[in-house]
Here is the input.
Amino acid sequence: MTIDIVERGLAGHRRGPDCYVAILIVPDGVAAPRAMQRTTLERRGCRLVEVGRGYTRATGPRSALGRARRVASEVATAARAYLERWPEATVDEMSGWVRTEVWRQYER
Here is the structure.
């Protein structure tokens, strides 16, 4: 299982944040999808956990996008360590664990 950080622009936005940061969980034996469409992810058994949104022009460490990047980096590192201890974890267990960790990071 691989865990990657994904940063993509939001298509067709008019107001609000124009970029999101997410953690992509890909099971073993599956190629990581290039398109982050829900149907493609479901078909391959992948999970995409959104961490946060922000503006691409505001990239400083105190901006919403900067915080989302920092949280995604910390959670992805912790998730990789979790996988080293419990390699038999399923994609659903990992996505639930990652969601909980993202929530805990934002509660600080």
